[in-house]
Amino acid sequence: MKNLQEATERICELKGSLVALDALVTALLQAMPVSARAGLQRTFEGHAEVARTVLLNTSTSEHTIAAFERDVKRTSELIGEV
Description:
Elements: H1 2-31, H2 34-56, H3 62-80
Helix pairs in contact: 2-3
């Protein structure tokens, strides 16, 4: 039971960290000049493709891959907003 409790606590910690990072990225994108976003979009797409390749070539759960794809799409849309 202790292992399950520790795993649950760690998952909750990771969720909190992820929400904080999401808030930071959103704030940075909103503060970023529109002229810089095109370059960011290209760079982000490249890094996302590398990460996707790593995820698909390792033993990663479908839940993780689905969350990755969802968040990449959301971030790409945020970069494109004016």
